[in-house]
Amino acid sequence: MSSPNETQEYVGFDTITQQMERKFLKRGFNLNVILVGESGMGKSTLINSIFASHLVDSMGRRTAQEVIRKTTEITPVTQTLEEKGVHVRLTIIDTPGYGDQCNNEGCWVPVIKYIKDQHAAYLESELKPQRARVINDTRVHACLYFLNPGSRGLRPLDVEVLKRLTEVTNVIPVIAKSDSMTLEERTTFKRHVKEEMAFHRIVVYPYASEDDNDEDRMLNSSIKELVPFAVVGSEEVIDVDGTPVRGRRHGWGVINIFDEAHSDFVHLRNFLLRTHLSDLIEVTAQRHYEQFRTSQLRQIKEIRAQQAAAAAAAGGSMPGHQIQQAASQQMPTGPLPQQPMAQV
Questions:
Q1: Burial bucket for residue 185 (CB in 10 Å: 0-12, 13-18, 19+)
Q2: Which are the contacts of 177, defined by CB distance < 8 A and separation ≥ 6?
Q3: Three-state secondary structure call for residue 250
Q4: Backbone angles phi, psi at 23, to 5 degrees
Q5: 3-state DSSP call for residue 303?
Q6: Which residues, other chains included, contact 29 with Cβ-Cβ below 8 Å and sequence gap of 6+?
Q7: Is the pTM above the cut of 0.85?
Q8: Are 287 and 216 in contact (CB under 8 A)?
Q9: Where are the beta strands (DSSP E) in 95-192?
């Protein structure tokens, strides 16, 4: 029992973390992840494996009779998950049709547009005179970019898309179906990808921050060593000598997705959910969304200045208050101005 002196000296602001936790548990949070990669890379299987639930179905072609998609489609699926009292509204955005054509020029445009559209929707909600107390956050917090293990490095398409994606969201590159490679091939692939990203100045998540302490820097350094994550996903449970194992069966044996000697799956899951989940959401708001917001508000300011100048020129000797009224009548009242598609 605390003494009277201790009770009087105790202020109590250290309970702020408990207060925040109670509020957070009550409200829950949103997590939005977009999957970018060509068909057959195991995108749906991996995300189902990470969350240990069947959340999304594969959007790939199942029969030869199915029509090949000519454009990249955007298909978001939202599920509400609960774990030990914590609720997450999880949205998985798949991109069927991406990279599946002989000519893939522009296949990234719908992906970039979708990410920017979510920023625009959030900004529009923020600027409403009577905005909601809690804005529904559909901004993309993470992008899992799937590299084809048969390419042995970054293709020109990968370089182009990674450059564009890293400007608008947190990109986490993964080597899909890495069990199709030997350990030596996997090591060589990772080295080539790191070298090519450095050469093309492609900076993927996590980013260095002035707020990082020594522990954060060590953790991020260890993650950078693993990137791109060589992953294997599976929803199948296989019996190995009486022990159930989540993995994939090959002619030479079984790949256990939780065995760190077989795959980086555990490292990716821990990185995505156990160590950097909050940071992904925070960086999205403070880095990518702020850049978009600044750009959009600057455009609005320029449009208003041009309209005011046009109104003044048209008004001639019109009194100042009438010029201001005329300019205000020409202000944009619809959706926020969007950047031209050429800038996507």
A1: middle
A2: 41, 42, 149, 232
A3: strand
A4: -65, -40
A5: helix
A6: 87, 88, 89, 281
A7: no
A8: no
A9: 142-147, 171-175
In whole angstroms, what is the distance from residue 22 CA to residue 19 CA? 5
Quick one: pLDDT band at residue 3, thresholds 50, 70, 90?
low
**pLDDT, tens digit (0-9, with 9 covering 90-100), for 19-46:** 877 777 778 899 999 999 988 888 999 9
Distances in Å between the Cα of 243 and the Cα atoms of 50, 231, 247 are 20, 22, 12
State residue 252 phi and psi, 5-degree precision: -95, 0
Give the count of alpha carbons within 13 A of 257, CB side only.
26
Tens-place pLDDT, residues 261-297: 889 999 999 999 999 999 999 999 999 999 999 999 9
Residue 70 Cα to chain centre, angstroms: 24
Compute the distance between CA of residue 110 and CA of residue 112 in angstroms, rounded to an integer. 6
Q: How confident is the model at residue 165 (pLDDT cuts 50, 70, 90)?
A: very high
* Structural contact between residues 21 and 79, judged by C-beta atoms closer than 8 angstroms: no
Distance of alpha carbon 209 from alpha carbon 211, whole angstroms: 5
Task: State the Cα–Cα distance between residues 322 and 330, nearest whole angstrom.
Answer: 13
d(CA 314, CA 291): 35
Question: What pairs with residue 88 in β-bridges?
Answer: 29, 81
Sign of CA dihedral 295, 279, 114, 171: positive
